[in-house]
Amino acid sequence: MRYLLLVVLLSAGVGRAEWTRWHGEGFNGAGDAQRLADQWGPGTNVRWVAEMPGVSAATPIVSEGRVYVSVFEEKTATIGALCFSVAEGKELWRRDVAKGVKAQRPDSVAAASAVVGNGRVIFTFSSGDVAAFDTAGKLLWKCNLVTTYGELGNKFGYSSSPVLGDGRLFIQILRDNANPSLVVCLDAASGREVWKVERATSAKEENKDAYSTPCFVKDAGRTLLVVAGGDYITAHELKDGREVWRSKCYAEAGTKNFNRLIPSPTVCGDQVVLPVNRGSKLVAVKIGSGDWSWTLPKVSSDVSTPLFYKGNVYVLDSGTRKMFCVEAKTGALLNTVKLPGSRSCYASPVAGDGKIYVMTLAGDVLVVKADQGMDLIRHIEMGEDALGSTVAIAEGCLFLRTGGKLYCVENGKAK
């Protein structure tokens, strides 16, 4: 019964005014907001700005009037968790999670986004540290994935975000080393393991690696966990991790074994969409069977996760800044535009109020009309580089993370 309840809540869009996990409430990058700002700067539509003590590529997480962000302080090699007030940007609490953390890349140490629910907020880091706090900042439990499950093995630093549902935390560990790839379920209240399953793959070498985040899908009246990476998309039962179906959707014969997966699967109604083979094609997989609905060559992304909004899939090629508009139902390519700027876009596009928002590594925010034309509305320079953090849409505001600051942008506000 409790799994059925989770299905109902997910499908009904409960909490769409919040942004409680990576890629938003529907695992598709779409926010449910009106009158979102499409222009801002000093004195215009900026509710507040908060200084960050360190760096992170994680998305701000927003729930019940609070914003949660991860941080890596390079000088002290400390990973931590911070909480701010949505109303005024006041820092409510700051907690160190671990010190002396070795960084493969500073931008990837705190790249995994937090997740919040049932009065708990849970942070994950590339060191394998997982820490759960209540919303007032009290530590509830800590564990370390490396200690329990072995080296995580990702070449550029583990950055898969956990997902939370029905009082359980679901974590994927897809890796290229001697340890098996796993899907793990922890009790969100205690951090104790509920179950773990090995995730078999025929992938070789770096193809085993994945930096993606799993998602929930509705399948024949039940909720399943979908995991992408290691040459496959797989669906698992929430109660025990049993694999229900799988789809081999990339690494065709003759391709080299360096096709690690960075983008996450995007839920588009009765299918999931995924860019594969380092941005060489886009695949749509039917929920329930794992069969392909359609595939598009050369319409893809190496890093950014696609957006699903009002019947269309928007795919941002991370390196070229080309944005593709694809009809989700048929896979028809509707249009392609080249976005302005001089740097790559590692952040993923999100949308709300008929507008698409994406931030480049230069810290520029590109605001685009969310329709087939994809006309540029605004090119906003934030004044400093960013690390690939995706914009969050919640409580009628935009939350943006640059290299050194956290912004809350709202129509009609001035700071």
Could you characterize what this model shows?
- The protein is mainly beta.
- The protein has a domain at 29-56 and 306-415: Lipocalin, CATH 2.40.128.
- It has three helices and 32 strands.
- The chain has helices at 2-12, 106-109, 145-149, and strands at 46-51, 61-63, 66-73, 78-85, 91-98, 115-117, 120-124, 129-134, 139-144, 163-165, 168-173, 182-187, 193-198, 215-219, 222-229, 232-237, 243-248, 266-268, 271-276, 281-286, 292-297, 307-309, 312-316, 322-327, 333-338, 350-352, 355-359, 364-369, 376-381, 392-394, 397-401, 405-409.
- The strands form eight sheets. It has a four-stranded antiparallel sheet, with no helix packed on it. It has a four-stranded antiparallel sheet with strand order 2-3-4-5. A four-stranded antiparallel sheet has the order 6-7-8-9.
- A hairpin with an 8-residue loop joins strand 11 (168-173) and strand 12 (182-187).
- It is globular, with a radius of gyration of 19 Å.
- Residues 1-16 have low confidence and may be disordered.
Task: Determine the mean pLDDT.
Answer: 91
Distance between the termini: 48 Å
Helical run tally = 3
Overall form: globular
Strand content: 35-45%
Number of strands: 32
Global structural class: mainly beta
CATH T-level topology of the domain at 29-56 and 306-415: Lipocalin
Name of the top-level CATH class of the domain at 29-56 and 306-415: Mainly Beta
Widest sheet, order of strands = 1-32-31-30
- Quick one: biggest sheet? 4 strands, antiparallel
* Radius of gyration of CA atoms, rounded to a whole number: 19 Å
Low-confidence stretches: 1-16
CATH architectural label of the domain at 29-56 and 306-415: Beta Barrel
Helical residue percent band? under 10%
